[in-house]
Amino acid sequence: MRDADTAAGLGEMLRSLKERAGLSYGALAGRLHLSTSTLHRYCTGDSVPAEFAPVERFGRICRADPEELLELHRRWAVADEARRGRGRARRKVRRCRCPRRYRSSRVRRLSRS
User: Fold this and answer.
1) What angle do CA 66, 7, 31 make, to 5 degrees?
2) pLDDT along the chain (113 residues), means of 10
3) Where are the alpha helices (DSSP H) in 22-112?
């Protein structure tokens, strides 16, 4: 399963709950204490929340039944794992940007603590 598919699956379910509840992005964002643009990114699958709490609140506000809440959690967990995997891959590739003369002192400082 591709990363985009997992985030898109979560977004698809969030959109269907939002439409069923009949709430606008603005009204829903206000109740969730999120910005409208952040909520829209979640619903389009462009972004995945770092924690499940806003997704759960979203489901409860939209009156999701227990099975839907469980499916929301499953989709969030899959999308979050894909998001974290992408972050790990990026970190492996990144190089130290500090000047060479500071690298050894930073290593010594970190090893003392």
Assistant:
1) 55
2) 70 95 95 95 93 95 95 94 71 52 52 53
3) 25-32, 36-44, 53-61, 66-93, 100-112
- The CATH number assigned to the domain holding 85 equals 1.10.260.40
CB 11 within 8 A of CB 43: yes
- pLDDT attached to residue 100: 55
Domain interval for residue 63? 3-112
Q: Closest by alpha carbon to 83, among 55, 57, 63?
A: 55
Question: Using an 8 Å Cβ cutoff, are 106 and 99 in contact?
Answer: no
pTM of the model: 0.71
DSSP-assigned letters across all residues of 95-107: ---S-HHHHHHHH
Looking at the structure of the chain, the number of domains it has is 1
In the numeric block, the tokens 């959690």 are attached to: 73
**Alpha-carbon gap, residue 77 to 52, rounded angstroms:** 8
